[in-house]
Structures are given as C-alpha cells and as structure tokens.
Give the backbone structure.
Amino acid sequence: YLNSDSTEACPMTKLLTTDEVAEMTGLSPDTLAQWRWLKKEIPFVRLGKKCVRYRQSDIDAWLAKRLVSVSSGENP
C-alpha cells in the first residue's frame, strides 16, 4: 500500500466493508456511499466496479481527527 500523503509504503492494514465501517462509526451505508460519490471525508479503496473497501488505518485517522478533548477538572 502507498500512503496517500507520500510515496512511502505503509504497513498492510485491514480492509473493511461499508457495513463494517457503518457499524463502527454509526453512519449509514447510504451516507458512506454519498461521501464516496462526492469523494469527501473518508478515503476508500475501489477493488472493482462494485467492490469498495476502507482501510482500518484511514478509519482510525479519520476518527482521531474528530476527537474532542475534555478537561477532567470539576465545573465551578
């Protein structure tokens, strides 16, 4: 696999189906399909005309970018 941000090879990563990504993220398969059509949000791998997969590493990176930090202090 090639990293989309560079020409460096990245380690093998698990390929996930649309349904698996939908279950992991709480997004609908239709939303994921729309994002693929718009080429936005989560990168995907097209293995054939009707065969699409998502790399686990891309899902992990996408989720990490959306992490909201919260303080552990008490509210006044």
About this structure: The CA atoms of residues 8 and 70 lie 34 Å apart. Residues 29-38 form the longest helix (10 residues). Strands lie at 15-16, 45-48, 51-55. The chain is about 35% helix and 15% strand.
